[in-house]
Amino acid sequence: MAHDRFGGSRGALTPAQAFQSIKPRYDSNDAHSVGIVLKRDSSSEGPRKGSALSTPRIAIVDDDDSLRTALAGLLRSHGYCVCGHASAESFLRSGDIGQVDCIVSDIHMPGMDGLEFKRRLDAISDHTPMIMITGRTYPDLDAQVSAAGALGPLAKPFPAATLLDSIHDAIARCDKRPDEGDRG
Question: In angstroms, rounded to a whole number, what is the distance separating the alpha carbons of residues 140 and 149?
Answer without folding.
Answer: 15
